Each structure stands twice: as C-alpha cells, then as structure tokens.
Amino acid sequence: MSEPRRRADAVRNREAVLDAAEALFARGGADGVSMNAVAEAAGVGKGTVFRAFTDRTGLLQALAERRSAPLRQAVESGPPPLGPGAPPRERVVAVLNALLGAKLDNQGLYLALEEAGGAASPYRSPSYGWWHTVLRDELARLTGTAGRADFLAHALLAAVRADLVAHLTVDERLPVAELRRRLTAYAHSVIPPEGG
Amino acid sequence: MSEPRRRADAVRNREAVLDAAEALFARGGADGVSMNAVAEAAGVGKGTVFRAFTDRTGLLQALAERRSAPLRQAVESGPPPLGPGAPPRERVVAVLNALLGAKLDNQGLYLALEEAGGAASPYRSPSYGWWHTVLRDELARLTGTAGRADFLAHALLAAVRADLVAHLTVDERLPVAELRRRLTAYAHSVIPPEGG
DNA sequence: CGACGATACGGACCATCGGTCCGCTTGGCA
DNA sequence: TGCCAAGCGGACCGATGGTCCGTATCGTCG
C-alpha cells in the first residue's frame, strides 16, 4: 500500500513544472500554454513533465488543486459562512462567490481545465464531484427530495463555469462587482427558503 | 450586394458534406469526427470541405443550424407554449425542455460544438445569442431589473449544456424522463412568479 | 567509500489534427 | 465551341499531445 518513495530530483522537478505552468497561465492567458512551453519554461525535458503528471489534464488538475487548496480548506473546516455551521442559504452563496473569485483569478487555467471533453470532461474530475457534494448536501437540508438538491447543485455550479464568467466579464465587459451582485441575487432566488 | 452565384457542384458537395458529417456524429459520437474523416465520408477532398465551411467551427455551426432549424422556427412563430403568446413561465420552461431534447439527440454534435474555446467559444456563436435573447426577453416581463433577467437566462441555458446533460445521462445513468422532471422543477422554482 | 540497480531525465521522434496551397478540372455563359 | 472564373483534391505544413529509449543520477547496501 505504501507509495514507492520518490527521488529527490523528481520532487524538485515536479514543483518546478507546477511553478512554471502557473506563471505561464497567470501571464499570458490560456493560449500558448502547450506542454512544450511548460517544459521549456521549467527548464526540464518534456518527458519529465509527462512522467510527473501523466498527461495534460493531470497537469491542469494538479495546478488547480494547488491553487484552490486554501479555498477547499476554508470550506472544509474554516469559519462560517464558508466553513460549516452557517445557515445553508448563506453558506451556498458564500461558496459560489468564492468559486467565482477563483475563476476570475486563474481565468486561463480554469478555461483550459473546462475546455477538455471526452474522458477529461470537467464533470469527471474529482474536484467537480467534491464541490457538487458540498453544495448538494447543504441544499438537501432545504429541499424535500434528494434529486432536487442534486440537480440544483449542478445548475448552480454551471452558472459559474469559466467560459461563461469569461464571456460576461471580457466580451460583455460586465464589471466584476455587478457580476457578483447578479450571481448572489440569482443564488438567493434559487435556493428554497428554510421551510422547504 | 448580391451573392456571387454558386456553382451547382459546389452546392451539391456542400450538402454531401453536411449529410456525411451528420451521419458521423449520429453514429459514433463525438470522437473520430475529424475534418479528414468528414471529407472522406462525403467522398470529397479536404479542401472542398474547408472552402464550403471556412473552418471546423463553421461546419459544426452549419450542422447545428440545420438540425435545429425546425425548433427555432417553432419558437419564433409556432403555436404556444413554444411559440410566442404563452405565459412567460410556461414558454421558458417549454423552450428549455426543447433545448434539452435537442442536446439529447445530437449529443456528439453539441458536445463538439460547446467544447471549443477561444474565439469559437459557444458564447460567441450567434446561435447562443439568439436563444439567450429569447429567454431574456421573456423573463424580463417577470423580473424588475433587466440585469436580473439577463443573468437568469444565462444560468438557465448553462443548466442544459451538452456536457452536463451527457454527464447526467451517461455517467450517472439518470433516466431521461427524470432529467426532464428535474429540469422542469428547477426552472419553475427559478423563474419569478407573475407578480415579481 | 565504491559500486550497483532502480529511478528519472531529456529530447528526438511519432501520429494526428486543423488548415493552406496550387496545379488541374469542370461548370456555365457568350 | 471555346473561354475563364469557380471549384476541386490531396500533398503539404506547423503545432500539439504523447511515447521511447539511451544516458545520467540518486540512493542504498556491502
């Protein structure tokens, strides 16, 4: 069961690749961030990148994982309203807004991550499952049927998808503050009241 | 201003390509439908495909256009509840359900269409704009502020995105009837009441 | 400390894909 | 019937994700 021990240089390189890729996404946006570019920026061979992350999707997921770790931590065990304990309505809205924030920073990364189809569909990533579970469980405390909470969670997450967010802020030039306001209003109107 | 007249063989070939591509998507799903494959299946050179449709996105959009023309027609000038005239709530729900139906048939096509990023983002296609306008205008009759209706329309459309639909029906094995029920319930709960 | 096997490196290499180019063919009009 | 613009097709191109394998390095054990 124990992991077979990783060599020191492998660990070091993995970190370097992660850093380089993060920088590339932060700087240029989504385009131009090819695996070749990442390897070069990290000062590492291409094979090294693929050994560390299996494929492009693996790299993107690891990257997103690292970037959103604090947020997940806050949701898992931080103080309300993000952490457990707040009334369901408030917590769901807080989580959605936090997620929106993550997509706004890291636009390039999340665009790349959600673009993939087939086996790499965003819906198949463990990360999506995690967020969906959090929302669903919280919503289940408000709605009668489980199926309802389940679909509602999907719908709410769909409203903060990276490409929609990018479209609204970049193409339509909707100010971020306004976007936040609309998302919040929408979420409030969607989430059923306390009385089920 | 007049279109420069198209040669007969060009028209014929265009149709052949459309048919071949449609068949490919209907049969195999999204994968394997490369431009090369389409050209070959149509019994036509690759250059011909690109002259007729400019690029891959053009082909996909033309394809989707053709497949959904009757639906658009029905929404534009058909009988209620899909056509104009029905109460906003019912019409919006009807349109969403119709859209869901279109994504369920033609899964491969819509998956391919929504996968694209960058300049070919689904949100930049005229088709999306059209559906969004329809929903927004209808919703605007119910909500106070325009911005609210606008975002709500986006959110509702996001709930029937091809990859989400595929995830629910294929991965989660959610029966189509159940999906329809949940979508309808969700839409009803989201759309503000008449007095809104 | 030396040596040996497992692990990792790197970049040449490969297959595939969307898209372009251009010499040849064909349709349509006078 | 002859001319020429419109169209054809498939070889070709550049980029990309992913693989392969000879070589270098790590870490351990005697």
TrEMBL record, chains A, B:
Domain HTH tetR-type: 11-71
Gene3D superfamilies (alphabetical): Tetracycline Repressor, domain 2 (1.10.357.10)
Transmembrane segments: none
Pfam families on file: TetR_N (PF00440)
PANTHER family: HTH-TYPE TRANSCRIPTIONAL REGULATOR RUTR, POSSIBLE TRANSCRIPTIONAL REGULATORY PROTEIN (PROBABLY TETR-FAMILY)
The name this protein goes by in its record: TetR/AcrR family transcriptional regulator
DNA-binding region(s) from the entry: 34-53
Keyword DNA-binding among UniProt keywords: yes
InterPro entries: Homeodomain-like_sf, HTH-type_TetR-like_transc_reg, HTH_TetR
SUPFAM superfamilies cross-referenced by the UniProt entry: Homeodomain-like (SSF46689)
Species of the source: Streptomyces lichenis
Hydrolase as UniProt keyword: no
Keywords of the record: DNA-binding
